[in-house]
Each structure stands twice: as C-alpha cells, then as structure tokens.
Amino acid sequence: MPFHNGAYYPYSSLTQGTHSSDGIPSVLNSPISHAASAPSMTPSSGASTFLPFKFRPRRESVDWRRINAVDIELVMSQLDVDALQEHISTVTFCSLDGERCQRCQSPVDPALVKLLQLSQLMVEWLLHCQDLLSLNLRAAEERLVAASLEREQLQAQSRKQEEKMKELTAELKHRRKVIRTQQSLFAPRISSSHKCPHCEKYFLNNSFLQNHLQRRHPDEFQTQLQSDEEKKSQMASLKQEISSLKQQVVQQQQDLQAKIAEEKEQQHLHRELQRELDRFKSEEMARMDRMIEDSRDGMRREIKFLCNQNFQALSEVSQPSRTKTPSPVREPERDVDRYQEMHLQAIQKLELQMKKQDRKWESKLQEIKSEHESEKNQLLKELSQVQSLVEEQQELSRKLQEKEQTIRAQREQ
C-alpha cells in the first residue's frame, strides 16, 4: 500500500511486491517510475536525482459502474486508502472525450472536463514529485548506511590505536621506572663524597676522582668512559623514543578528535535532512488539506447560493404583484399617508425586482433558446447527413437490383 502515516509514497521502479528501504511497498506502475529504472537514475548515482517528466495521454475509458459503487463518505470515515489505490490509475489516466450523460445523453460540461483534466495533471505531477522524493530518500539512506560502515571502521581503528597507546604507555612507565632506579643508584654518590670504585680512596669532587682513575686505573677508566657513553647514548635514544611516542600519541588523539567531529557533523546533517523531510511532508499534507477544505467550502457556498436564488424566485413568483392593505378605520390621516407612501415604495421596489427578475429570466430563456437552437441545428445537420447516407445506400441498392435484373435478363435470353 503506497500510503504510510498519512503520506502517499508512489510505487517505484522495483518489481511489484518488493519493498523500499523505508519499509514502504514499491508497486507504482506508471511510466514515470519505469523511466526511473534506468541505470543512470539509480539513487546511488548522486545526492539528488532528477527524473524525466512527461504527461501521459489519456485514452482509458471510464467504468461508471465501479465509480458509482464507491461510497465517498465511507472512504473518508474509514480512511480506505485501498479503495483510493484501486481507482487512482483509472481516475488519473481516464478520458472524458465522447462521454455523455447516462440520463439525458448530453455531452459533459467543458468546464467540468477541464477541471478533471487539471486535477489529473496535478495528481500525475504529485506522483512524479513523490517518486522523486522516494528516490532522494533512498539515496540519503544509502549514504547513511555508508557513513555507518565508515563509522564502524573508524571505531575499530580507534580501538586498535587505543590498545597500542596503552601498550606504549605501559612501556613508557616501565622505562621511567628503570630510569628512576638508575637515578636512585647514582644519587648517594653524587650527594656524598666521591669514592673510587676500584680502591678505598675518597675524593672531594668528581674532577679529583677522574684524575685518580686516569692515573691509577686507566683500563677501568676507559671501560667506565665507554659504559658512560653507552648509558648517555641509551638515555638519549630513550628520550628521543619517548618524545616520538608522545608525538605519535598527540597525533593519534588529534586524528581521533577530527574523526569524531566529522562523525558528529554527519549525524547532524542526517538529522537536519530528516527534519527537512518531515517538515516537507507535513507542509504538503497541510496544503492538500487546505485545498480540499477550500473546494468543499466553495461547493457549499455555491449550493447555498443556488438554493437561496431558487427560493427567492419561487417566493417572488408566488407573491401577488400588488397587495392592498386596508387602512385603519380610526387612525389619523398622517399615519394613513405615511402608510400609503410606504406601501407605494414597497410596490415600486417589488416592481423593480420583478422587472429585474423578468429580464434575468428572459436572458436565461434566450440563452436556453440559443442553446436549443444550436443543438437543434446540430441534430438537423446530423439527421440530414444520416438521410443523405440512407439515400446513397438506397441508390446503391437500386443500382445493384438493376444490375441483377440485367444479368438475369441476359441469362434468360
């Protein structure tokens, strides 16, 4: 059913029985939806899809029995959209050319035909717009699915980076602990007197110790120098590695924040698009309700106006042209004059109204006569054409009989 939550969703170019991405059946069998099934018009081809639009010719006949069988009040009270769907194709693409009244066999009023044609074009255009909106909505949903997949990938990468960052942080803590241990080992010697590691001598400062080592322990001094250089290089490499790890952590945090911001922006865009679609649907439904209500009010006013005119005309015809009111027997002469003046004014007013009504009815009668004359002339013209055709057929039959008689006479000879 193409109606969902009070909104009409046209059948898409998918085969009948399939469903669109929002759970609405896609079973529209119009040329607009068939044109949308081209490869270049798929929802994934772009953010907005423009379908080619062309009005269909109206060639279908009207099934008046099915139309008369529809109960409009029942459809309105029960919101029977199935009945609307059953007759939408017939009403939209039917043709009233050549249709006549079933009672009087007179042609349909051109104004009503024009009104129906305008309604058909509006319905066909609304079907096209709904189809376009469905395609755009499907494309937006596909983009949302792609964004969700990308979001999941980014979250997986973020979890991997977090695990790696935890490992690097643990290694960094371990190395800091090693450094603190080494510093704690060297701290007492630096704070107190400097003792030679190879003998029992003490020195006031490090320079004296170095001189002692160069003189008394040259081999150990060289070994110590090498070990100190190795330690320094190791410390430098550790510091460099720590700084690089810090930079990597900062860079990863920045990338993660940028991805989170991008994801939030995409979610915001999706919410904005959804709100815009909801607003558009509500505006369209409100506009259609207003149009239907205005048309109902106009028809009610016109019916009421016609009823008032008929009632006024009947009342004016039934009234006598002049009414005589007996004057009071014992009223003053001034009241009698005033009453007579009012009576004369009322009579004049009624006469003017009767004249206007007579002119109006005369004009209507003339119009009816002219229409009758035109119809009469048309019927006479058609009758003359029929008579001429009958005469031609009679003439042909007479000639055929003469030829048959001639052939029969020749055979008898």
Automatic annotation (TrEMBL):
Gene Ontology annotations of biological process type: cilium assembly
Compositional bias annotation for Polar residues: 314-326
Compartments where located: Cytoplasm, Cytoskeleton, Cilium basal body; Cytoplasm, Cytoskeleton, Microtubule organizing center, Centrosome, Centriole
Region (Disordered) residue spans: 314-334
CC terms in the record's Gene Ontology section: centriole; ciliary basal body; cytoplasm
Any one GO MF annotation of this record: zinc ion binding
Signal peptide: none
Coiled coil: 137-171, 228-283, 362-413
PROSITE patterns: ZINC_FINGER_C2H2_1 (PS00028), ZINC_FINGER_C2H2_2 (PS50157)
Main subcellular location: cytoplasm
Annotated ranges, domain C2H2-type: 194-222
Pfam families in alphabetical order: Dzip-like_N (PF13815)
Keywords on record: Cell projection, Coiled coil, Cytoplasm, Cytoskeleton, Metal-binding, Zinc, Zinc-finger
Homology family: Belongs to the DZIP C2H2-type zinc-finger protein family.
Protein name, entry field: DAZ interacting protein 1
Species assigned in the record: Nothobranchius rachovii
